[in-house]
Design brief:
The chain is 51% helix and 8% strand. By secondary structure, the protein is α/β, with parallel strands linked by helices. The radius of gyration is 33 Å and the shape is elongated. It is built from 30 helices and 14 strands. The chain has an eight-stranded parallel beta sheet, covered by helices on one side.
């Protein structure tokens, strides 16, 4: 058949409504003559007629679109569902139905309708992107990525697909790929604040804090009322040490929404870091509702603001409800007896030269390999320092999980078939404690990193002791308490103290004066302690207060506060940070460590005691304010525990004026560090293993978790045999 005859035949078929047959002839012509303009125009015209025939009238479509735009999703969906019975090939109706169901949260229906829309018009980038969105909300991330990728392949400049693909890749932990797509989107739409914000979040995950900060800054310039961007910019500036900038960022967020408790808490925390003591007054103005009226706030930031364990638990539970959604129920017993080796997983971002490893290094070394298999899950910096190398030589397995998505992280931990999972981070920085919302092991425990309740049933036990968690304090915890026989805090009795001989002159200290010392972080210091410390300096001639240099603003503010109390600012001496072994060695030149009240020294206190420096503490109410007491009891110096601010001040003054008494304390401390329970790493490890056995034994016997008191036992002994049978 000639070309002209073929075209005429196709037109006759169109006139008799045989559209499919006509379309086939036009397609055959174009297959033979790809540049034939008449056939191409005829096919396009036919396709347009077919689309119009498959859709309801324009006025009906306009009414449906108006209903959707007005948020009438359920009514619009009902009308569209009725019409689609008549117009079964209407891309408009199927796509609209899918969008309505997506807004209503009916994800299965949405995905089904949008799939049909894509079948009708495979080249519709909008419908395919919406299908990707439905699949993403169903947590079918890989299927969503496929849909977004198809859109971008056909439409490289499709902003919605680029952004959503980037966000989905970020959800899976594929941050490098995510950043590439988000960067492309930002170039295409440089005035889109949301795109800048999303890209910033990915750069933050990649560790590019400066790049993230710049993007957040760009977002707030584009959209000054973008409160979340102000907040995240503040967080980044805080991490970078730009604390005054961070305060301004949080203030900007509060200008947008004065009820943004999250921004206010972070602002107050940054103010505490720079010793701007206007924060307690602002805190008191807002304390009754902070973290309790819808905007959950970081429990760690609030920990140092008030010693009130009841209030802290309420705030923490509010925060946990957002962080731990859909907590998995306990697992049924999968064995009738204790395995030969319990498999214990420790989860942390701090498996390197960090306070956690300064304390725990010896624990991993002392775990009984005949009874315990230890798996370390690291999701922090991959630093190959001495602490990491030591850990690697003593754990059974080391899992590098820093660039692994939460979904894959959980799958990997579950594949390891852990018996006990221990979170070492809690609500401290860079934590991934939300992993524990899913059951990683039959028994979940919280330990060491965060001194307080996690506020969620995701954790079965919190490891404490009888001092930090005294009888009657159970109501402050969502977890059941596993109380160690002495202090809850593990210490490494192999920690090295530098041989470097420090002199007072080398440390900037007067040679013959009394040296009070407090190496706590600046945010822990409040006017309550400082008033006492300044009165001590006033009463002890020539004495000085040796502090850790935190930041320039804190130093200037503390000097100003000293002068306001009649003390020469030069009597505050600030110590630079230095390697841990040297830091321990230099503490020998101080006379007395003065603890902070609301949030005691923790690792810092055991550092001082290990170095032979006595610590004076005030026993508070919450876990964080009782750690000093726990450490002093375990090192055999309970007389350095005071119960009131008056007693604290009087005891400090007494010791400063009684060199013989202080010398006696130092002598006892030197002796006790060799024998006291605080520095007996092997004995602590055996007791911890006993606690693990007790908790796991309850699980094997079908018993719910309960408060446990771990008894003291002889080194190397255990009362639970591997063959313990469940009831």
């Amino acid at each position: 058949m000639t070309l002209a005859k073929s075209l005429n035949a196709a037109k006759r078929l169109e006139r008799t409504d045989k559209f499919d047959d006509a379309a086939k002839i036009y397609g055959d012509i174009l297959a033979r003559y790809p540049r034939n303009v008449n056939a191409r125009k005829a096919l396009e015209s036919l396709s347009q007629r077919l689309r119009q025939a498959s859709d309801p009238p324009a006025v009906v479509k306009a009414k449906l679109a108006k209903g959707f735009a007005a948020g009438q999703f359920r009514v619009t969906a009902t009308s569209a569902a009725e019409l689609v019975r008549e117009y079964q090939d209407s891309h408009f109706l199927w796509s609209l139905l899918g969008r309505c169901y997506l807004e209503l949260g009916a994800l299965d229906k949405s995905a089904s309708c949008l799939t049909r829309a894509c079948e009708i018009e495979p080249k519709s980038g909008e419908s395919r992107t919406l299908l990707g969105n439905a699949l993403k909300q169903q947590r079918k991330f890989h299927d969503a990525i496929t849909q977004y990728s198809k859109v971008i392949e056909a439409e490289p400049d499709n902003l919605a697909a680029l952004n959503n693909l980037g966000n989905t890749l970020a959800t899976l932990g594929r941050f490098t790929e995510a950043a590439q797509h988000q960067a492309t989107a930002c170039k295409l739409a440089p005035q889109n604040a949301q795109l800048q914000y999303n890209h910033a979040g990915t750069l933050r995950q990649l560790g590019d804090l400066n790049g993230a900060r710049d993007l957040y800054e760009s977002a707030v310039k584009i959209s000054p009322d973008f409160a979340a961007a102000h907040f995240n910019q503040g967080q980044i500036n805080g991490l970078l040490g730009n604390r005054t900038e961070a305060i301004r960022n949080f203030d900007s967020a509060l200008e947008v929404n004065a009820d943004d408790d999250r921004s206010r808490v972070q602002k107050l925390h940054q103010m505490a870091h720079i010793s701007d003591w206007r924060w307690p007054e602002e805190y008191q103005q807002h304390r009754r509702h902070l973290g309790l009226r819808g905007t959950a706030c970081s429990p760690f930031a609030m920990l140092s603001m008030e010693d009130n364990p009841d209030l802290l638990r309420h705030r923490t539970q509010a925060y946990a409800e957002q962080q731990f959604s859909d907590v998995a129920p306990p697992l049924p017993a999968r064995a009738s007896k204790r395995p030969k080796r319990l498999r214990v997983g420790y989860f942390s971002a701090d498996f390197h030269a960090h306070a956690t490893m300064h304390l725990m290094g010896g624990l991993f070394e002392q775990h009984d390999p005949n009874r315990f298999e230890v798996v370390a899950y690291s999701y922090g910096p991959n630093r190959q320092d001495d602490s990491r190398k030591r850990l690697l030589s003593h754990v059974t397995h080391f899992r590098e999980m820093s660039n692994v998505s939460n979904t894959n992280f959980v799958a990997a931990a579950q594949a390891d078939k852990l018996d006990i999972a221990v979170d070492l981070k809690g609500y401290t920085g860079d934590n991934r404690s939300a992993l524990f919302a899913t059951r990683l092991a039959p028994v979940h425990m919280s330990y060491l990193g965060y001194p307080g309740t996690m506020g969620t049933p995701a954790f079965d036990y919190l490891i404490g002791d009888h001092t930090v968690c005294p009888p009657g304090s159970e109501r402050h915890y969502s977890e059941h308490l596993m109380r160690m026989p002495h202090s809850y805090q593990i210490n490494d009795d192999q920690r090295q103290i530098s041989d470097r001989q420090f002199t007072r002159e080398a440390c900037g200290l007067p040679k013959d004066a009394f040296v009070f010392c407090s190496f706590n972080n600046s945010y822990k210091i409040t006017p309550r302690e400082f008033d006492i410390w300044m009165r001590l300096l006033a009463q002890v001639d020539g004495s000085v207060l040796w502090l850790l240099r935190s930041n320039e603003w804190s130093q200037a503010n503390l000097q100003r506060e000293a002068e306001a109390r009649g003390i020469d600012p030069s009597r505050l001496v600030f110590a630079d940070r230095m390697p841990q072994q040297d830091h321990l060695a230099r503490q020998k030149v101080a006379d007395l460590f003065l603890d902070t009240f609301i949030y005691n020294a923790h690792t810092t206190a055991s550092d001082a005691l290990w170095a032979g420096l006595p610590v004076l503490t005030l026993m508070g109410q919450q876990f964080a304010s009782r750690v000093g007491g726990s450490l002093l009891k375990a090192v055999g110096l309970p007389e350095l525990i005071t119960q009131s601010e008056g007693d604290y001040e009087a005891r400090a003054l007494e010791l400063a004026r009684s060199p013989d008494d202080l010398l006696g304390l130092r002598s006892r401390l030197t002796t006790n560090r060799k024998t006291a329970s605080l520095f007996q790493t092997e004995a602590f490890t055996r007791a911890l293993e006993r606690g693990f056995d007790m908790a796991f034994d309850r699980y094997l016997n079908g018993l719910a978790p309960d408060h446990l008191n771990v008894p003291e036992m002889e080194t190397g002994k255990t009362s639970l045999r591997p063959e313990t049978v469940a009831a």
